[in-house]
Structures are given as C-alpha cells and as structure tokens.
Amino acid sequence: MCITAICFHKKVKRMKKIVLFALGMAMSMTTFAQDEVETTISADVVSSYIWRGQDLGSTAVQPTLGVAYKGLSLTAWGSYGLVNPADTKEFDLTLAYTIGGLNIGITDYWFNQAVGGDPLSRYFKYEAHGTNHVFEANVGYDFGVASLQWFTNFAGNDGVNKDGKRAYSSYVETIVPFKLASVDWTATAGAVPFATDFYNGWTSGFAVTNLSLKATKDIKVTDSFSVPVFAQVAANPCTQNAYFVVGLTLIP
After folding, report:
1. What's the pTM?
2. Assigned superfamily of 40-250
C-alpha cells in the first residue's frame, strides 16, 4: 500500500508538471499574439463624405476592421449612407507595409455605381472594361513634422486623359500634424499632377484639389470612456467648392 501511494503521488506530481507546462505554453502564446498581432475595430460617423476634395455623399457611417503584424497590415474600410439611399456604397481593402517612416501599399476600391449603363452590384466582377473596382498603389514617407504620400491608379475603373487613354490617375498629398490649445490638428494639401477625369470631373494637368484643416478632440463621456469628435474645413480650388464636415469616432 505504501509503494502504491508513493507511485500515485509521483504520477500526480508529473501530471501537475504537465498541466503547468501546458498552461505556461498557452500563456506564452497568448502573450506573443497580444504583443505581435494588433487588431483595429472602429467606425466613424460623418455629416458628409469628402474624399480628396470630392463630395461623395451625405451623412454616412464608415467602419474599419484591420489586422497588423510587424509592419504588415490588412485593412477593410467601408462607407454607407445613412440618409440618402442613392449615396454610393464603398468597400475597400488595403494591404500595406511600414518600416520606419516609409510606407507602401495597394488598395482595392469598390463602389456600387453604374459603369457603361450596367448597374454593377456584383462585387466579384473584374472585367477589364466593366468593373467598379479601382486598384491603386501608394508610397509615402513620414518625416515626423510632416508626411508625403503619392497614389496612382494602375488597374480597374480608372479615368482617362485628354487622348482618351487610361490616365493612371495620380494624387499627391502632404499632411502636417500639430497641437494647438490641447486639440490635435492636421493640415492637408493635395493635388492631381496629371490630366484625368477621375477626380470629380476633368483636370487638364496639375491641379490643387484638396486644402483642408481638421481638428480632433476627445469628449469625455465617463471616467473610463471618451469619444473622439472632429471638425474639418475643406476646399477644392480646382472645382471652387468648399465643405464643412463634423463627425465622431466610435471605438469599443
């Protein structure tokens, strides 16, 4: 009986070691995953959808879902009108990589608009001359005091130039962040460098299409919860239009 009891206690100790080892491994893997993989879930609610100096719709909700690992990220973003059912619905996927201040990426934009009179409500339609997808590549660098980004459409439903050929529509943008009176500000200047009809009508060459100033401030709701609220004044000198946008960001 004594020998049996000793064997039993040895087995219990070995089982405890195995269980503790397994728990340690699980905790290590969980910690590793938490340290290395980041997930983003948020949504903006905006009074109007203004993009690169273009008016793309009225009040909208714009959700974001993304994962990132060691500089590599995959992000889904969308825009859905809340007031006007005729507003364009948008669904974008972006694959990006960041190292230091340098960033590169590819975005697949999709809009449920009509192309050539055919209402393309189907997402999985990639015909060369009959798709609502626009594929864009970008490269940029963040210098700290300012960032510079270049975007170029390379496939899909791009615009055309003065010869009626694919324009490879491009957009270049400078963003300067700063802080003033305990509020986060960003000043943006954007331009279309080449002739295209992609950006809100025809541009015959270099044209400044986006000048904006945006302020963001956290509004405290409770001791543990606050909501970022922002206001933006934007102008498009090319089309001589101006916009005022307010919105808030919902972060679980």
Report:
1. 0.81
2. monomeric porin ompg (2.40.160.40)
Give the three-state DSSP class for 49. Answer: strand
* Amino acid type, 159: G
Sign of the CA dihedral 122, 128, 132, 135?
positive
Q: What sign does the CA torsion over 34, 35, 37, 42 have?
A: positive
Rounded Cα distance between 78 and 108, Å, is: 12
Domain chopping of the chain, boundaries: 1-33, 40-250
**Residue matched to tokens 């728990």:** 23
Asked if 159 and 196 touch (Cβ cutoff 8 Å), the reply is yes
Cα(first)–Cα(last) distance of the chain, in Å? 59
Is there a contact between 21 and 230 (Cβ–Cβ < 8 Å)? Answer: no
Write down the residue that tokens 């793309």 correspond to: 56
Q: Please write the tens of the pLDDT for every residue from 121-136.
A: 678 888 877 788 999 9
Q: E-strand spans in the chain?
A: 37-46, 49-51, 54-57, 60-69, 72-81, 90-99, 102-111, 114-115, 118-119, 133-142, 147-156, 170-180, 183-192, 207-222, 225-236, 241-250
Identity at 235, one-letter amino acid code: A
